[in-house]
Amino acid sequence: MEGNSVSSKAAVYFLISFRELCLVTLCLPLSSLLICFVTAYIFQQDEIHETHCRVYNVIPSISAITGVSPQRYLWRVCVAFHIGPRVVIASVYRTYYRMLLSQLPEAKNANTCRLLDVCYWLNMMEVGALCGVTYVSNRENYPFSWFSMCEYLIASANMAFHVTVMLDFPTEKMVVARGLPELLFNDYSLHWKKTE
User: Contact, 50 vs 62, CB < 8 A?
Assistant: First the structure.
C-alpha cells in the first residue's frame, strides 16, 4: 500500500533522452552557422569579406557572417537556446565524475575534486564567453584570412568535443519530476528486501 501512495504522488513533467538533448544542443549553432554562412556569402558578400583595413578575406570570419543582419538574429536565437543545455551538460559531467571520484581513496579524491571543480568553472566561463561574443557587439574586424580560419577551427573543435557527451551518456535521460527520488528509493528498498 505504501508503495502505491508514493507512486500516486510521483509525476513526470518532462523526459528527454540525454543523447537527443545533446544532438539538439550541437545542431543549433552548427545549423545556424551554416545558414548564416550561406546566406551572407550569397547576399552580403562585400560586407563579410572586407576588413576595416580594406584587406579582402578569402574566408569570412564567424564574427563577420553572424554580425550582419538578418543573420545576427538567427545566430543570437540559436545561441540562446544552446546555452541552457550547455549548463545542464556541464553540471551532469561534474556530477558524473564526482560519482566516479567517490570511489577513489580519500587522499586522491580531495585533489581530484578540486581539479574537477576547476574544469567545471572553466566550462562555465566558456559558456559565458560564448554569450559575450554573441550578444556584445564587436565592431572590430580582424585583418587577413588566418584569423577566420582559426576561428572556424576552434568552433569546429569545440562542437566536436561536445559530440563526445553523446558517447559518454548514450542511454541516460533528463527528467523533470515531482516525487521521483522517493519512488526510486522505495522501489530500490522493496527490491532490496525481496533479495535478502
Answer: no
